[in-house]
Every structure is written in structure tokens, then in C-alpha cells.
Amino acid sequence: MSLVAKCSVAGRFYFAHHRGAECPGGYETALHKMAKQILIDAGRVWLPERDVLLSLPLVFDETLTETLHFKSREVHFVSVVSEKRLENGLIPDVTALLRNNAEVHVEILVTHAVDADKSQMLDNVLEIDLSLLSEETVLGPVALETEVLKLAPRWWHRCSLIDELPKVQATRKALEARVPEEIKRLKRKREQEEAAERKKERAAQRKEKRRRDLLKKKAEARKPFEKALTNLEQMESMGWLTMADRLTKRAKPQLELIAQRLRFDLGKWPAFMNITVHQDWMFKEDRRLWQSAVFESLILSNEPGQIISVAQALAYAEKAVGVREWALKLSQLKQSHLKKPYNQDKSYELRGVWFLTHAENRAIRSPYAVVLSYLKELCKRGVLAEEKRAKTFRILASAADIWAAHRKDQRKIRINAVRADKGKATLQSLLGDVFPGQEENKKAEQEWRARRDIAIQPLEYSVNDANAIAAAGFTAALFCLSCKRHHLPEPINECTICYSHRLRTVDLTEEYLHSLPHRLKCMP
Q1: How far apart are CA 117 and CA 122, in angstroms?
Q2: How far apart are CA 103 and CA 80, in angstroms?
Q3: Which stretches within 223-262 are classed as H helix?
Q4: Residue 22 in 3-state DSSP?
Q5: Element containing residue 54 per DSSP (H, E)
Q6: Could you give phi then psi for residue 70, rounded to 5 degrees?
Q7: Residue 234 pairs with which residues in a beta bridge?
Q8: DSSP SS3 for 9
Q9: What angle do the packed helices 367-380 and 325-337 form, to 10 degrees?
Q10: What percent of the chain has pLDDT over 70?
Q11: What number is the average pLDDT over the span 486-490?
């Protein structure tokens, strides 16, 4: 084993072990011995910092803990010896006796750390890690001594030296004294949590009971109005489609009499007596009948400046066509609830009957509101002006002005029709230029018919479904508003074709089946 003569910056001469490939373990062995010698010569060492965790079990898997932190500090040896064999046969690198008669065993880590047996069988084991020191540090006596005594990483394996200090014992006793009170606190807390949970459960049970009672009360309150509500649902879904054609046919004789009396062509019905009003299906007949009665009796027969009321208009409308009894029943029900206490803090649009759904409350309108909407539409056309909000209106236009406006509208319609015909002719001529040959025109027409057949095919399926269900003896069917297909009137929640929930019940009357293809083409 070769040695190298060295001289430190302080002028101290010494020999260092040569580090080379021919002696791979010599450097580590020399560093290990030098570190032990430094500890023996210095008679002191810096202990690492340590956290002592004190933990006492309580109840409910809870523990009472406190952590004591001891900072790193320097201790001096009373005596120190290297490689001392202990009674258990173990040989620590350095064994030192402190001033409090406690033994500290120091292990030097260069290549091999302390094994598990030694760390468990020895008390107060301090391990100093020199494995990462650079060769420059090792070759400097002062630097190496500083690393060994203080700066190099170090840690405790077992340390009764600190764990059994009077401060630790006093803290442990203080914790033990707190245990009974902490157990009582935890028990009180658990009792409070259990009481709160029981209270929460009782509140949930009461809430569920109130909900069930409310549903029961709603069901009982709805019973007298079930038929009317069923009619309302049908009318809001597909009922108006089945009713429109029937009302038009039934009203035709009366419409002819009105046209003769007011001297206009039946095919050119005045727009101001055929205004679409939301939910005007509550009147029994075609809207042109009741709007003509109101317009003729209150507007055409009076001079401009005359004041008319909504109540007067409603009286003429009811006299002309009447109101559906079930719609009037629901309207009166809603009116009777509008001023109830539970409606006072709501806006007018959100007020309604407590046992009806929001959609049902929105769908219910009074005949007064329908007639009012009609008169407001006349205001937009310059015929009336609202005098007193939602109650009275003032006539602005005379009969002559009104009929002049009607004739002007008819002229516009004719002009637009002529323009449309001219545009169609122009388009046809352009298409003729694009497809000059007869074969090309025929091919384009065939492609168009193919696209039309693809679009019409689902509608044909729907018509076939409806006819098949009617032929099987059913008087009603379920109609899907999404895919436009008909289903047997069975209690299902979704369409079996497109899985939509937008199902409505339709009556399979002769008029419905006859007009179904045309109405399916017009539906969005």
C-alpha cells in the first residue's frame, strides 16, 4: 500500500493513502480510519437535530400528539475509544462517553451504511455520511476535520439520549394528563355529530313526508280538472292540427255570408280579421268568425276617436262563437288563484295555480287575454291605439281608410304574385340555357325526384303507421314530435325509433288520417 507525502495549508505534514486502480478499497479504508482518528483526537462532535414525536392513543382512532424539536448542538466526550467490542458482540466504529454518563456510538459511512441489526440493537447510534466528500476535501486536513465533526450529513438511528430527556418526559406527562379531558371532548363531539346526523335525518324524513303529502294534495286537487287538463295537453301538442281543417269546413257558410255582407271576395279575406293569436283555440269556431264580429260591430260601425273596451270586444266574440267550457273552466281556476298569498311576490307571468305544472299554467289563458292580444295586433296595423292599459282602445282609422288599406294589400299581393311568376319564368329560361339538351333536363329532373323521394320516404312510413294502427281498431296513437312516427297507444316513456321523450297522444279520426300527409310536409 503506497502513501503520498502531503502538506496542509497550515504547514502540517502528513501522509495520504494513494487512490488508484491497483488498490480499489484502500482509499475508502484510509478515509474511514482518518475519520475515527479525528473523532478521537478532537474529543467532540456535533449531534444532528432531532424531532421527537409524542403520541398517545385516545378513542375513535384519534391520537393526541406533540412534536419536540431539538436543534443540532456540540457535545464533548469524557472518554472515547475506537472499535470497542460491546457485551452483545457488536463493534461500533467509535464509542464515546458523555458528561451525563450516556454512551454514544458513532458509525462512519464511506461505502457501507449501518445494517439493520446494529441500528436496532444499539442505542444512541449516530451515523456520519462521508461517502460524497470530494478528494480535495479529503486531502485537506482542516476541511476533512470540519466535515467529520460538524458539516457532513448525519442522523440518529436510535437515541434515548434525547428521547429520555427531562423535557421530553415532562411533555409526555403533560400529554398524559390531557388524555381524560381529550377523551371527554371527543365523546362530546361524537355525541354532537350523532345528534346532528339524527336531526338531519329527521329533517330529511319530514321534508320527504311534506313532499309526499304535497304530491297527494296536488293529485286530489287536480282530480276535478283532469279531463280539462287532458284536453289542454292535446291542444298544446297536436290537437290544433286536427281541429283547424274541421273548423274551416264548418265555418265556410258563415264566412260566405260575412264576405257578402261586407262586400269582399271570400278568397281575399282581410288580414285584419284573420290575425293569428296565441291560444285562440279556446273559442269554439274559426278565428275569422269572432274577429269579424268584433271588427264589424266595434270598429267599422264607429267613427274615428270612439273609445271601445276589451270587455265589449269579448262580449261580441263570445256571442259569435262561444268559448270551450273546459278552457273557460281552467281560465276561471287560474284567475281565482292569481291573487292568492303565494302568488303575491311573483311577477305576473310566473303566477299560477299551485297544483298545476309550470307548462300548464303558461298554457292557460283567459278569453279576455286572447281578445286583448287581437286588439293589440290591430294597434300595430294603425287601426287602434291603446287608451287605458289592457282595458280600452281608441279607433284611429275610418271604415273607408281600412278598406282602402285592404285593397292596397291585395294589390301588393297581386304584384308579388306577378313578380314571382316572372322570376319563375326567368329561372326556367336560365335552366334551359344551362341544360340545353332534353336528355340533360330529364337527368336533372330524375335526380330531383330521387332527392324528393328520399325526403318523403320517412313521412310515408309515418302515414303507413297511422293507417295500420287505425285499421287494428285503435282510435288514438302516440305521435313522436322528433322523428314524426306513430306508435301504438301503450304506456311508453320514449320513442322506440329515435328515443325521444316528445310523445303526444293524437286521435285517429278520418279527418286526421286524410290530412296527415299534407300536415307532415308542413311540419318543421
Answers
A1: 8
A2: 9
A3: 226-234, 240-262
A4: coil
A5: strand 50-57
A6: -115, 125
A7: none
A8: coil
A9: 90
A10: 87
A11: 84
Instruction: Confirm whether pTM is higher than 0.85.
Output: no
**Predicted confidence (pLDDT) at residue 462 exceeds the cutoff of 90:** no
Question: For residues 98 and 104, is the Cβ–Cβ distance under 8 A?
Answer: yes
pLDDT of 12 over the 60 cut? no
* Phi, psi dihedral angles at 441 (to 5 degrees): -60, -40
Grid-cell match 296565441, residue found: 278
3-state secondary structure of 276: coil
Residues with Cβ within 8 Å of residue 508, at least 6 apart in sequence: 466, 469, 470, 474, 475, 476, 477
Let me know: does 290 contact 317? Beta carbons within 8 Å.
yes
Query: Is residue 92 a contact partner of residue 82, using CB atoms and an 8 Å limit?
Result: no
Highest mean pLDDT among 193-197, 425-429, 430-434: 193-197
Whole-angstrom Cα distance, residue 480 to residue 90?
89
What phi-psi label fits residue 75: left (phi over 0), alpha (psi between -120 and 50 degrees) or beta? beta
Mean pLDDT of 140-154: 90
> CB-based contacts of 211: which residues, under 8 Å, 6+ apart?
none
Q: Which three cell numbers stand for residue 60?
A: 375513535
User: What is the distance between the alpha carbons of residues 298 and 395, in angstroms, rounded to a whole number?
Assistant: 9
Per DSSP, helices labelled H in 322-366 are 325-337, 358-363
- Interatomic CA distance for residues 64 and 56, integer angstroms: 5
